[in-house]
Amino acid sequence: MQTSFVLMSVDQGIHDTTSVIDAAACGLSSGEGWSVRMQRLSGGLSDGVDVVWLNNGCTRIALLPTRGMGVWKAESAGLPLEWKSPVERPVNPAFVDPMRRGGIGWLDGFNELICRCGLGWNGAPGTDKITDESGKVVSEQFLPLHGRIANLPAHEVTVEIADDGAISVVGVVDESSMFGGRLRLISRLTTYPGSTSFEIMDEVRNPGSSPAEVEMLYHCNFGRPLLEGNSVLHIAASEIVPRNARAAEGIATWNRYTDPEPGYAEQVYFARPIADESGRGLAVLSNADADRGVAVRFDVDTLPWFSVWKNTQAEADGYCTGLEPGSSFPNLKTFERRHGRVISLPSDAEVTFRLAFTAAIDSEDVRQLVAEVAELQSGRPMVVTSKPRPDWCDC
Amino acid sequence: MQTSFVLMSVDQGIHDTTSVIDAAACGLSSGEGWSVRMQRLSGGLSDGVDVVWLNNGCTRIALLPTRGMGVWKAESAGLPLEWKSPVERPVNPAFVDPMRRGGIGWLDGFNELICRCGLGWNGAPGTDKITDESGKVVSEQFLPLHGRIANLPAHEVTVEIADDGAISVVGVVDESSMFGGRLRLISRLTTYPGSTSFEIMDEVRNPGSSPAEVEMLYHCNFGRPLLEGNSVLHIAASEIVPRNARAAEGIATWNRYTDPEPGYAEQVYFARPIADESGRGLAVLSNADADRGVAVRFDVDTLPWFSVWKNTQAEADGYCTGLEPGSSFPNLKTFERRHGRVISLPSDAEVTFRLAFTAAIDSEDVRQLVAEVAELQSGRPMVVTSKPRPDWCDC
Amino acid sequence: MQTSFVLMSVDQGIHDTTSVIDAAACGLSSGEGWSVRMQRLSGGLSDGVDVVWLNNGCTRIALLPTRGMGVWKAESAGLPLEWKSPVERPVNPAFVDPMRRGGIGWLDGFNELICRCGLGWNGAPGTDKITDESGKVVSEQFLPLHGRIANLPAHEVTVEIADDGAISVVGVVDESSMFGGRLRLISRLTTYPGSTSFEIMDEVRNPGSSPAEVEMLYHCNFGRPLLEGNSVLHIAASEIVPRNARAAEGIATWNRYTDPEPGYAEQVYFARPIADESGRGLAVLSNADADRGVAVRFDVDTLPWFSVWKNTQAEADGYCTGLEPGSSFPNLKTFERRHGRVISLPSDAEVTFRLAFTAAIDSEDVRQLVAEVAELQSGRPMVVTSKPRPDWCDC
């Protein structure tokens, strides 16, 4: 059995906010309580935002087709995976002007658990200059913060139920412009009934006629209850580098968190993750008592760089940490290009990014995940540098 | 009895454009013909704009949740309170780019009777520079005209009917961004069945962790029939100052209006209003025959500055006058800060602004209001200055 | 009989996506299969876009009220009139930021068969400077690419069925701002049951109090099947000029097309069209076999300048040609003003633009149209210049 349901298709004129896709809808007798449905929000800055609620019977995931298939928030076995941004509700991209505040308008809509930064670029705003071999600038373009994809709505959303019970939500988002290249994201989020895990498989295609540059970064953000004083980040990595002088101040405690500190200025650490035999990296955030946590797994092949965003400022201002596997570091694209961290995707080619979340809901879960990180690290040194690396850090 | 009806709540998934809230809906036998309902506009630049129609049986008020709880227009006992902007219909903020035309894109959506300018700033567009004690610029940000609030949609709208018959529409609007502060407007417009008055009570809260700057100005705009040749503005004020050389030209007639004059360049006068015993200032606009008018009352404590915007240009271009109580003058925030007219709102604190309108529908109404202004002024000099004051006027 | 149906009216609260207007709805017994209806798209960047589907029984036309009454695409007797932009679906202007990419954000929504560039300006982005007689700059404003009208939604759409069977869709679009002038487009697209033709009659009015500048250009775009290697453009013109050095390279083949060429840089030719006795110019695009084509007719009086946009780049990037009758050439407005090609429309006046399409669906159709062009040209020289003309080309 492979059953497919179209929740949204601009081309087919479908926008279905009434159907509930569940075992019964699939003609199955027993469903373990899973269901998928789409809701449209009305009012506020959320007006016109579609939310796909995927409940696998244990884990509830809220996807945002309107915001590039981002994941607003999730909850697994009662454990909330979320953070509290000053921007309290999903924001329709129609209300976001990326050029605001000198190019950081992206922050006006930033509140998701998983928010993609890409596809054409991510990172700090600035003027990207492309030079020819002689060093002459042949093109320049101002790139606002973190790219377009989080503010582009999917034009197609499908739910697929596989023979093995896998529940997938597939969304298609185009990032294109006349004379501006074209990239297509085909995002598939998959989970199983009763599971505390879900996986995202993103294909980014280049339907254009010439090679296209791609930068992808998964801004995975956690607040309470996982983040608190004495929460710890466990990651298997060969190198840890502070992004700038401010981060260098805290290098001794780069992977430990504090309670909210009003006025805390963010600290960012860059890492080179270690892959397991299947090519996956692993980062685990555990709470103070090590009885709740989350594992973030990702393909190191296509996401070889990892940013740790420590933002333990006041609760009211967005107490949060970001675990961010990326194809690049979130520096200005010019810098990343110079250091070989921008993907050049040939015409008609595609690159696949994989990211998976697992909720750890008791001490044993956390213990196992931490042990897994340790095993991955085992025998491989983790070099923690006290100063920014000039080829990693554009500071 | 206190009866509450939710017309809109993003959080609760409510957006109700079918209910009519009236005496019957409240279980009352007699209703004096009042009702409240919400309509969603479709098409044009108004697409997706919600209008709350509040009819107290005598006065009809059109509120715009989609535009920061502004008041589009009103009509009291047959007297229209409105003006005719070249922008003919309410504009969804999704279609407004404040950065357009060098930062005056706000004008693309400007046509309300009451339009808030704020919350973080108002006034002329420009680059706001914040300096430290040594005069060094520590931050700068381009601020487009008149702030964000008029282009931010409410995410919650409630109708409350009180025991004493008061009908209130309460809207909540967030002006926030990650790393950009957060301010919340809780706006309550109240009227009574059969009344020719309505009052706005706005609470602006700072849910952020550190003090936030607030500037609020109520752009209250009137065209025909109240504005015509020989209309007069009566205001109790201790000082009147022309904003610039252009306004100085007309200082002798600063409070009298002419018929539309094609090519007329706006003239703005700044005033320091006088408060009555309850702390309220009063401005009255009367028509030529002094048989129709409107009173604008406001708390002088939080709205100590008043701008008179004379814009008696051609009818087709927006023949209009603005009576504008403010926490500041509409200069660039840098200038207002320097002169102590920017509110610093502590974390978790709130500031309340009050504004009330009363329609004067016959000669006796107008006579009483004009007498009230005279009494308020009585014994207190009104200094009318012929030149801009350097600490008021950024010219 | 003149029957009128309102599909959309913001003022009347009408937005009708259920009615089908056809012969039966008009009380006619025989309808030749024509119908008109409006659809609202949901999802993707098309969310909230209204499409009016006009089918005259032979020709199907998709109009876009949400995009300034542009024509998305058409099909006549099985012949598609369209092109394939990298932007695959109609884009709601709420998602278009004209200031993006240095002022070419307009291209984010560009994919129509007929897209208006105007009303206040069109052409390349840049800072328009207005100087007084002494040459002093008295005003300057940055004008992004191709003006506002394609990204302004109609607030009123009516269908009219005339006694003679003519089917018209009339849309009203306002391009106005407080202190920014006001222009109104009343666009009427008319066709007859069974016809392979349709005509657009656009009235642009100036309801403002002073003269307004107007620039209008019809960006009529064709891809396959009409455009292919060896397609030919036939136009009656007295002069053909390459826009710049790049266009000059191809002057020998200015009216012949190639197969898609990856990396092809656009070539633009400017022409002065010849009018027939009724004042109409004619351009005909025919395919390689001269058995399919399209005729574009236009009033030379108000559209005296014609641009040929050759954009035979890779199929995936938007293989396309634009036939563009205009009141100006698409240069920066400053340049066009200097050379007398900007309309000054007096207060309360209007200017009417007429544009008609006819599909040629067999060899005989094409032969007749080509003969018509030849006859129009007959006896009048066509001067083909090898270099840009300094008064036409801002290069």
Describe the structure.
The structure is a homotrimer of 395-residue chains. By secondary structure, chain A is mainly beta. Chain A contains 5 helices and 27 strands. Chain A has helices at residues 100-103, 245-249, 315-318, 333-338, 363-377; strands at 3-9, 14-15, 21-22, 35-40, 50-55, 59-64, 70-76, 79-81, 114-117, 126-131, 137-143, 156-161, 167-176, 182-191, 197-205, 212-214, 217-222, 232-235, 237-242, 267-273, 280-286, 293-299, 305-311, 320-326, 343-345, 350-360, 383-384. A 10-stranded antiparallel beta sheet of chain A has the order 2-1-12-13-14-15-26-22-21-18, with helices on one face. The longest helix of chain A has 15 residues, at 363-377. At the A-B interface, helix 1 and helix 3 of A face loops of B.
What pair of chains forms the biggest interface? Answer: A-B, 35 and 36 residues
What fraction of the residues of chain A are assigned to beta strands by DSSP?
35-45%
* Largest sheet, spatial ordering of strands of chain A: 2-1-12-13-14-15-26-22-21-18
Indicate the radius of gyration of chain A in whole angstroms. Answer: 20 Å
Largest sheet of chain A: 10 strands, antiparallel
Task: Give the total of beta strands of chain A.
Answer: 27
Mean pLDDT of chain A: 96
Distance between the termini of chain A: 53 Å
Helical coverage of chain A, percent range = under 10%
Secondary structure class of chain A reads mainly beta
Oligomer: homotrimer
Figure out the total of helices of chain A.
Answer: 5
pLDDT < 50 runs, ≥5 residues of chain A = none
- Give the overall shape of chain A, derived from the CA principal axes: globular
